[in-house]
Amino acid sequence: MWNVLLSFSGLVALIQLIFLPFFPESPPYLLLQKEDKAGCLKAMKQLWGEGNYQTELDDLMKEKAVTKGTKIMNVLEVLREGSVHPQLCTMLLLLLSLQLCGLKIFETANLQESIIPYVSLGVSISELISIIFCSSIIERLGRKVLLRGGYWIMGSLLAAITVTLSLQDWYFWMPYCSLALIILFTVVFAVGP
To answer: What is the pLDDT of residues 99-140, one digit of tens each?
Structure first.
């Protein structure tokens, strides 16, 4: 029943993709990252209705003042910071364990059973690299752009995976196309949603 489960996540992604354009950007993101005070107030009114949001705006301005002197760390600096190693280890273990859940789709793609653990390890490493890449571009592009683009690409990839899994008995090279699409799906998921 893995195909039903995979279809369900595609349905949820489609629903989010349809409604995401109607939501405003996060007010803290607009004020702290984009420095758009008017956009921040507009987003607050769109999210919470008409009202006076001066208190919330003052809190965000205080947060901006506090973080102004704080250096934003890049990925390598975060990896060198010892205080975050437990969180990084937890995230890494979670990512690796998630890959074990995808072994069934590799079996369905008619891959040799002896190479499936190596393929799973490759997918895990690809996902980890994608997450590191995402953390370096998320502030420049914004979460909304990454989510919207990621869901569109993931939907297309799910359709292509369905086709390649259906045609794998016709062509000897089709399981490898399925594998490439699955890895690409994982990478896009890690960068976007």
So the answer is: 555 556 666 666 667 777 777 777 777 777 777 777 777 767
Same domain membership, residue 178 and residue 90: yes
**What's the burial of 26, exposed, middle or buried (CB within 10 Å: 0-12/13-18/19+)?**
middle
The letter for the amino acid at 33 is: Q
- How many whole angstroms separate alpha carbon 77 and alpha carbon 65? 23
Q: Answer with the one of 29, 48, 69 that is the final residue of a domain.
A: 69
Encoded amino acid at 86, one letter = P
Mean pLDDT throughout 76-85?
A: 80
Angle between helices 116-141 and 143-166 (to 10 degrees): 150
Tokens 């809190």 sit on residue? 59
pTM attached to this predicted model? 0.47
Angstrom CA distances, 87 to 28, 66, 73, 79, stand at 24, 24, 16, 11
Looking at the structure, tell me whether residues 142 and 90 fall in a common domain. Answer: yes
**49 and 83 fall within a common domain:** no
Residues 105 and 2 sit within 8 Å (Cβ to Cβ): yes
Distance CA 161, CA 175 (A): 10
